[in-house]
Design brief:
about 70 residues, mainly beta, 1 helix
Length: about 70
Amino acid sequence: DYKSAAVAGDLLCVETEIAEINSNSYAIEQRIFNQDTGIPVVNARSTEVFIDRSGDVVPVDAEIREVLSAG
C-alpha cells in the first residue's frame, strides 16, 4: 500500500517480519519509512508458497517452520 513518495537521497528504513505461517505457506509484511522524518512510504505483504520441483504445493518443513517462527 503506497503511503507517500520517496526520492533519490532519502534514507529509508525497511522493517520485515513473518506475519503468518500456515501448513504450506508463510506471509511476510514489510514497512518502509523515511528514517529522518518517520513518514511511512509503503506497507507490503507477500505470501510465499512451498512447492516441489514439479510445482506441487508441499507442507512447510518442520525445521523451516521453526526458523520462521523464531522471528
